[in-house]
Design brief:
The chain has 4 helices and 4 strands. It has 102 residues and is of the alpha/beta class. The chain has one domain. Helix 3 links the parallel strand 3 and strand 4. Helix 1 packs parallel to helix 2, helix 2 packs parallel to helix 3 and helix 3 runs parallel beside helix 4.
């Protein structure tokens, strides 16, 4: 299990990329992003480097439906997905997300 609490995005990125696809569980409470593209990049790094992932938890500020869709496609063994989303219109994005998991 990888627990990323209060780490910089670049640190989290390096750790995930160096796991050689062995990660099964990722839990994050606060990855510190310095640009608006980094949350999107973070999800991409996970789905590109963790095909055997079973559980992931992360905090998102914004809409990243396409990246989450790729996460669901690339991480076929995923059993649990916990997204703490903070968005001004979260009901709309929640409905859109439900389309992908059905």
């Amino acid at each position: 299990m990888l627990r990323l609490d209060d780490v910089l995005f670049l640190t989290a990125k390096r750790i995930i990329q160096n796991t050689e696809t062995n990660l099964r569980i990722i839990r994050t409470n606060n990855v510190c992003f310095s640009t608006s593209d980094q949350p999107r990049d973070f999800i991409q790094i996970i789905h590109q480097n963790c095909p055997n992932l079973k559980y992931v938890k992360f905090l998102l500020k914004g809409q990243y439906i396409k990246e989450i869709e790729q996460l669901l496609i690339n991480c076929q063994r995923l059993e649990g997905l916990y997204i703490d989303a903070e968005h001004h219109n979260s009901d709309h994005y929640g409905d859109e997300f439900i389309k992908y998991v059905n």
